[in-house]
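Dear colleagues,

As part of the handover before I leave the project, I'm documenting each prediction I ran so the next person doesn't have to rerun anything. This entry is a single chain, and its sequence is reproduced below.
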Amino acid sequence: MAFDESSWLRLEPASGETLRAALARTLREAITSGALRPGSRLPSSRALATQLGVSRGVATDAIAQLAAQGFLEIDARRAPVVAVTAVSHPSPAARAPARPTPRYDLSPATPDVTLFPARAWGAAMRHALRTASVRALDYGDPRGEPGLRELLAEQLGRTRGVVTEPDRIIVVQGTAQGLDLVLRVLRERGARRIAVEDPSLAALHRRIEANLLQPLPKPVDARGIVVDDSMGDAVLVTPAHQFPTGAVMSGERRRELIASGALVLEDDYDGEFRYDREPVRALQGLAPHQVVYFGTVSKTLAPSLRLGWVAAPPDLADELAHAKLLADFGSPILDQLALRRLLETGEYDRHVRRARAVYRRRRDALAIALARHLPDMEPRGISAGLHVLLPLQPGSDDVAAAEAAERTGVCVDAVSRYAFTRGEPGFVVGYGRAHEDAIEPAISLLAEERARAGGLHGT
């Protein structure tokens, strides 16, 4: 990148310093500080002299001096370029050794972004650009594009049993932002404690704390979160497919949770992916006035799209819309219009069906590989989502075992990394990014590590 007339570079000679020395020092300091990065293109000596108000000879001499010192690369056919080797003090990130990429990625809750329907999304974006009105490109409703919210209300009711209206839906930049907005509103209302599943996603705990609220851990069993008399000011749950245990909240436990009177925050992060039967209905459908529902395209399309939605109870919707307005005035409109197009044409549903078939094959391959190589380590969790829970022997150090597995080339995660209190150890094994042909050799490597180190034992 070259400088222009508005460049910040200024020549300020020190007392007794010549213009040549001052210019060389100024450029050198800009390079060593990182302001001029390796590969940056400087103006020509003529342009630099004009910009700084010095003679061309001064600029030429300073550039030649820096080139001789290794700070610049000069060529008669082009402007000077900052040398790649010019910076003697790399940033800490540059000095840190790169973490090797495991041969087999079985990390949990990670979708396969190579499945992203790029052609359909590109067509939808082109359609959005062709048809978007001038008004649509202006500041709009912070809730989101009206047509998209209409379609989301229909889609969520049809596929997840959500009962909502378009004016109660807020389009957000992923579940992370949606939860942040809800927590902000609850804090302003006087909330102090948010009950969370134990174990659950650590990023959720940190987000609660970042909003000056206290996570209140509640144990999870095979029927979901254990409900008691103290559920905090709100309770955050993943009832359709608990992360990381894979349990489904039972009907009895759902009724208990609703009867507790707590505001429920329902994270439906992978509800579209159920392989052995139809997905269980969203909890929100049982109590629309008590449940805040979060959804996202991060698992179905791609995390980087940063598109999600919140279906709020009537008494929260306006406050959430105001919080969204304060946060960013609204999510990117062209992306919303593209998603609307995918929903209108049915391409979104078709893509979800294709992705569901791919993930089901991978889960089946994982079950077969585990039965073959680790038959006494029966996976837990329903046939859904992108991960299973693989229990280890009580007392095992699952963090050390996961690190040992990674050194062999297999990336899995330890259950204890998601827990407030130390519970049953285990691996959270994902299959979202592992091709069917890679799953069997990955599990074989895990079995070899078990035999070698004795650190992996079934229950």
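The chain has a mean pLDDT of 90. Residues 347-373 form the longest helix (27 residues).

All the best with the project,
I.
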